[in-house]
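Reviewer comment 2.1 asked that we show a complete input and output for one of the modelled complexes. We chose the pyridoxal-5'-phosphate case, as it is the one discussed in the main text.
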Amino acid sequence: MSITALMPVYGRNEVRPVRGEHCHLIGEDGRRFLDFASGIAVNALGHSHAGLIAAVQKQAETLMHCSNLYGSPQGEHLAQRLVDLTFADTVFFTNSGAEAVECAIKTARAYHQQGGNPDRYELITFNNAFHGRTMATISASSQEKMHTGFQPLLPGFRYCEFNDLAAAAAAIGPNTAGFLVEPIQGEGGIRIASDAFLKGLRALCDEHGLMLILDEVQTGVARTGTFYAYEQYGIEPDILATAKGLGGGFPIGACLATEDAARGMGIGAHGSTYGGNPLGVAAAEAVLDVVADEGFLADVRDKGERLRGRLEQFIGNYPELFESVRGRGLLTGLRMKVEPRAFVAHLRDNHEVLTVSAGDNVVRIVPPLVIDDSHIDEFMGKLSAAAASYSPEESG
Ligand SMILES: *Cc1c(COP(=O)(O)O)cnc(C)c1O
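Response of the prediction step:
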């Protein structure tokens, strides 16, 4: 037998973390890495955060799992907190981002079917989007590399160019249920929706009675310097998917909706054995205790600006390697003039810094939200050393 025990769907690199300490990860071999990947925008509080550990420990000792057949004092409390912090009136808890998007897709379809418009089942989504790896969420993405081998896809998705409002408007037809869009495309390469684009989608939804679904799985929970990224656009969605940072490392996601948008989601419409499980809820409560705070959010914005300012200065020294810097809060993209994966590997293997490559030749820089200036200094020092010692041909 040659297949590995772990199904070989990931091209795993040689870092084998066994322990986390604040903003660093320690490998099996004792090597210590600066973690500016955060498990892909998950470890918002870094590793080994005392408040998060205490909350999970305490909940594990009290009640680890309980069925959704019973009342959930824990879930009600967290849901109310999310309702109070956002546009939403109601929350469904999931175990992952893809499940949160699935719930959002079902909620939008049910909204129209409940309203007597069963033909309105199609969601307009955008090129280079990423919404997860379930059948519905790969169908929602235009990226063919995720489709190969898995046809037939789920019908009911139509792709348009991101940031092209005219194309989105032209795509609306009798089957349209709404739009599903990331305010900032994460996997797609930190591509930021323009103000006019998101505001325009909101206006189109209002005009045509459609659902605006935001996928904030990567942008949410303070990552961009506001609790959700939509706050920076002066609009509100009808439905929103969130996960990644929400549990700070414990798997929990959520689908948030207005009362009107959730009109099709009555008893029996949806479910999940683990969704809203007390352990995940406790983790999310501990994350919100830290990040749902105006001072903390302002800090994230400031640290993001300082990091981007330093990066802007730095890339001037290597015009042959780097093209531009973009992002909001601590969701940052460093666009390269060469394929970024070899540089990400060089940074990791030779300079002990973890980042993540993304589409559009971008190196994603997504540190824990709790970094301080010393981590930015450490990062910039190692990045400079890595750029100085890099030759694309050799690493290619
Ligand atoms: C990561 C991600 C998902 C999928 O989340 P999983 O927890 O991996 O299922 C969906 N949408 C966006 C925007 C993401 O970044």
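The two ends are 31 Å apart (CA to CA). We note this here for comparison with the apo prediction described in Section 3.2.
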